[in-house]
Amino acid sequence: MSAPPILAVILAGGLARRMGGGDKPLAMLAGRPLIAHVIERIRPQVAALAINANGDPARFAGFGLPVIADGVADHPGPLAGVLAGLEWARVHRPDVAAVLSVPGDAPFLPADLASRLAAAGPLSLAASGGEIHPTAALWPVALAPALRAALVSEGLRKVRLFTGRHGARTVEWPVAPVDPFFNANTPDDIAAAERIAATLARG
């Protein structure tokens, strides 16, 4: 029996303070926006893709994907983006049982991210080098009401506090030849990513 389809939501709603503001996923790497690298990595792994971002969605129009804004006010962080994806899936993709969240600034994501997280259980988080990456995670759509209650009623903001309540499992990836969850938070990170991308291109 084939695995149920997954919707991937690329989290691009952050404020990018360490990058000097603006849209971090639109920063350029190897001649393309960071988010283009994320899309290329994730598209083969899932049934559908969407972008979570706030403000004018037109700036992402060139990627041809639905743009979903947070449904919770005041930029409460990545959990709001996850919730937006879960609630969008319930309405627009009722065939989808799970949402894969991925950061919009991680250009080297693993090719087996969706499959290994799905094999681990309905709620699972990626890890590498002993560090958990809570925005690279698989979320059951059925968790949407509990997540909305945690965000709105409790003001909860920490991904791992929420996932810890719901029995999340962790899946580890190797960090060689490159940490697949490397994320570009600063201009220096972009420079490092350029070096990594050039090395990977040489094979």
Write up this protein.
By secondary structure, this protein is an alpha/beta fold. The chain has one domain: Spore Coat Polysaccharide Biosynthesis Protein SpsA, Chain A. The chain is 31% helix and 21% strand. It has 6 helices and 9 strands. A hairpin with a 2-residue loop joins β2 and β3. It is globular.
List the defining traits of the structure above.
203 residues, Spore Coat Polysaccharide Biosynthesis Protein SpsA, Chain A, two-stranded antiparallel sheet, 31% helix
SSE order and pairing:
Blueprint: E1 6-11, E2 28-29, E3 32-33, H1 34-42, E4 48-52, E5 67-68, H2 78-92, E6 98-103, H3 113-120, E7 124-128, E8 131-140, H4 144-152, H5 159-165, E9 169-173, H6 187-201
Helix pairs in contact: 2-4
Briefly characterize the structure.
With 203 residues, this protein is an alpha/beta fold.
The rough form would be described as globular
* β-strand number: 9
Q: Percent of residues in beta strands?
A: 15-25%
**Oligomer, anyone?**
single chain
The computed structural class is alpha/beta
**CATH-scheme architecture:** Alpha-Beta Complex
Q: Would you list the SSEs in sequence order as H and E?
A: EEEHEEHEHEEHHEH
According to CATH, the homologous superfamily is Spore Coat Polysaccharide Biosynthesis Protein SpsA, Chain A
User: How many domains, in number, for the residues?
Assistant: 1
Through-space gap between termini: 35 Å
- Number of discrete helical segments: 6
Mean pLDDT: 92
Helix content: 25-40%
Radius of gyration: 16 Å
Classify the fold: give the CATH topology: Spore Coat Polysaccharide Biosynthesis Protein SpsA, Chain A
